[in-house]
Structure formats: structure tokens, C-alpha cells
Specification:
Structural class: alpha+beta
Number of helices: 8
CATH topology of the largest domain: FAD/NAD(P)-binding domain
CATH architecture of the largest domain: 3-Layer(bba) Sandwich
Number of strands: 17
CATH superfamily of the largest domain: FAD/NAD(P)-binding domain
Order of helices and strands: EHEEHEHEHEEHEEEEHEEEHEEEH
Largest sheet: 8 strands, mixed
């Protein structure tokens, strides 16, 4: 028997689940198809940072999009506790980027000044901290001698990324949506009334179709003759033994989990779908981390892994209709965790036929067209 939905989302990661949850809140009959999860899925390769600071100079709309999402997380976290029963472990922790040496401190300071100038009267919340101010902020950490200070932003935060994904999925289901797990899409055909999606578990009809399959969007969009410019962004991460709660605010690249382990990693590699571990990369990251926080050298490493993250070629999200399809959509985002709250709030109306909000209006496929 065919299943039928007003909206079918292909891809149940953080982005697809966020949009599915937002649609279910509006009473839309929504289904989310998700393939058998690989061990290298993007949700397992990040630290759950809600990170807005010190990025996207020259792209003010994206800066606003990120900060607007951050502001919505407190409300979303409380709502998800009620709708899903899952605590996503959201904390308004703020975030810190430590600087090694005077040159890096100056570069960070100049970048923040440029962001502040670009923001104009709206202002920009990021600030620089001297080493003394950094030590006062994190008094239980003895920083390395080359740490000269840091950037600080109170509007950054932290969640547990897998719990966020599961909470969005369960919340959607409890609000009337349908999760169709362990199901692979084989074919998609346009019909008079919408789309017919053939999977390895049967056929699904829908009026509106959303491709939110992360890196899989390249193959899915190919069924419509569309090229989606996203590439794998490999991250290698390692986890240490548990430590006391000495790091209430995450350092970019060094985060203490709720369970007490330290998660370390910041590399971005563009090596296709290769997920093999490379010792030299770990050594480079470990050297950097122990230069920041020397006591990390005394901790046992208990686990290492690598995963593939989604990276649109210019780093910014993609929200667009499938070319030539009024009711078919493509969604891709690298910062899916940071943007989850704004995806819940804003993208459902776009999927249901309204114009996307002005802040996100430029994130279309057309920006990649050859001039």
C-alpha cells in the first residue's frame, strides 16, 4: 500500500528533521525518509557548537541568519523537552577562540573590527579578551605560554547533536509526522499531482518534495538533471578520558562534553569520501591543543574517528526550488546544528509556498551559475 504525504522529506539528519518538525508543528502531513545511517554521518562528527562569531565577513545576511538562530535555541530546547521528552542539553555557554601568538591575536582583532564595521548601528556581539581576561573567564585552566588572548561571544552555545536530531525526529512523530527509517530512495518521478518516490520498502506519493539528504543530494538532485555543488568535508576527532567541569565555555576545537570527556578536532579536509584516519593529522591537532591547554597532554585518548560533513562550495547554505519544479526543494547546510532553530522557524513556510525570509533569500543555487 502506498503511503501519501503533503510533504515528503528525503533525509532525516538535523536539517531534514528540523524542517519536518517545523512542518508537523503547523499540522502538515509530513513524512521523513531516512536511509540506513552510516557511521560517518555528519551529526557524529561535530561538537554540537552553536557557533556564530568570527565568520562570514562580507556576508552580513548569513551573520544575521546564524545569530537569529542562536537566539531561538532556548525556546526550542524547552519545546523539544515537551514534544519529544528529550533534553538536547542546550547551554548558553558562550564561545571562545584562543589565540596563539601576537600575530594571531592581531588578525582576530582586525577581523572582529571589520565585522563590527560591517554591522554598523546593529552592532556585533563578538569581543577580544586579553590573556588576563581569558584566565579570569576560565580560572581552572592553565593556558600555554604562547596563548595571548581570545575572542569571546556570549551568543554562542552548545547542544548534544545526536540528541538534537533524535528530539526533532521524535517531536515530529509525536505531532503527527511520520519517520520512515532504514529506507533508501531508488527513484523519483514527477506526476500530475506531485511526486512518486520509489524506495526499497515501497512507493510513496507526495504533493511536495524536499531533498535534504546532505551529501546524498548530489545523487538525488541528479534524478532531475540538477547539479548540487556540495562536497565532503572530512573531520577527524578524538576523545579523551573524563575531566572535572573546568571548561564551562567551549574553545573552538576543544569542547568538554556533558559526560566529562574532552572532544578535540578542528581539521577540514577535502579528500572525497575517504574516511581513513591519518596519524599526522591527529598529531597536528594534538600539538595545537596542548599548546593551548598543556594539561591535555596528560589525558588518555579513548577514541578516535572521522566523519564526512556537508560543505556547499562557498560554505553557505542552499535553500532553493528544484529548477523547473514549483513544489520540489533542495536544502543543504554545513552548519546544520547552528541553524537548526531557524530552520524549524522559517523553512516550513518556504516549503509550503511562501517566499523565504529576506535574510535567506540569496542562498539559492543560482549564485553558483557561471557568469
Amino acid at each position: 500500500m502506498r503511503q501519501n504525504f503533503d510533504v515528503l522529506i528525503v533525509g532525516g539528519g538535523v536539517t531534514g528533521a528540523a524542517v519536518g518538525y517545523g512542518l508537523a508543528k503547523k499540522g502538515v502531513k509530513v513524512g521523513v525518509v531516512d536511509a540506513t545511517p552510516p557511521v560517518d554521518r555528519a551529526s557524529r562528527s561535530n561538537m554540537g557548537l552553536i557557533w556564530c562569531q568570527s565568520k562570514a565577513l562580507g556576508h552580513r545576511n548569513y551573520v544575521e541568519w546564524c545569530f537569529n538562530s542562536s537566539k531561538l535555541f532556548g525556546e526550542l530546547a524547552e519545546e523539544l523537552k515537551k514534544t519529544s521528552g528529550i533534553d538536547i542539553e542546550y547551554t548558553e555557554s558562550g564561545g571562545i577562540i584562543p589565540c596563539l601568538g601576537e600575530e594571531e591575536f592581531t588578525k582576530r582583532s582586525d577581523y572582529l573590527d571589520a565585522l563590527r564595521k560591517e554591522a554598523g548601528e546593529e552592532g556585533y556581539p563578538g569581543t577580544m579578551m586579553t590573556r588576563d581576561e581569558l584566565e579570569a573567564k576560565l580560572p581552572n585552566i592553565t593556558f600555554g605560554p604562547n596563548v595571548t588572548g581570545a575572542t569571546w561571544c556570549a551568543e554562542d552555545g552548545l547542544v548534544e547533536p545526536l540528541k538534537l536530531m533524535f528530539a526533532l525526529r521524535h517531536g515530529m512523530a509525536n505531532l503527527g509526522g511520520t519517520l520512515i527509517p532504514d529506507t533508501n530512495v531508488i527513484d523519483i518521478v514527477k506526476t500530475d499531482s506531485g511526486y512518486l518516490v520509489t524506495t526499497d520498502n515501497g512507493e510513496i506519493e507526495c504533493t511536495r518534495l524536499v531533498l535534504a539528504g546532505g551529501l546524498g543530494n548530489r545523487q538525488l538532485a541528479g534524478k532531475f538533471g540538477v547539479s548540487v555543488p556540495v562536497v565532503p568535508n572530512k573531520g577527524q576527532v578524538f576523545l579523551t578520558e573524563r575531566v572535572p567541569d573546568v571548561l564551562p565555555s567551549p574553545l573552538l576545537g576543544i569542547t568538554r562534553t556533558r559526560g566529562g570527556t574532552i572532544m578535540i578536532g578542528f581539521e577540514h579536509e577535502y579528500v572525497g569520501t575517504d574516511t581513513s584516519l591519518h596519524t599526522e593529522k591527529f598529531c597536528h591537532v594534538a600539538k595545537w591543543a596542548t599548546d593551548i591547554w598543556p594539561a591535555l597532554a596528560d589525558l588518555r585518548i579513548i577514541r578516535t574517528w572521522s566523519c564526512l560533513r556537508v560543505w556547499p562550495k562557498d560554505g553557505f547554505p542552499i535553500y532553493d526550488k528544484i529548477p523547473g519544479h514549483e513544489n520540489g526543494f533542495i536544502l543543504n547546510a554545513h552548519s546544520a546544528v547552528t541553524l537548526a532553530a531557524i530552520h524549524v522557524a522559517e523553512l516550513p513556510d518556504f516549503i509550503m509556498g511562501n517566499d523565504i525570509c529576506k535574510t535567506a533569500a540569496d542562498f539559492t543555487l543560482s549564485r553558483f551559475d557561471e557568469k
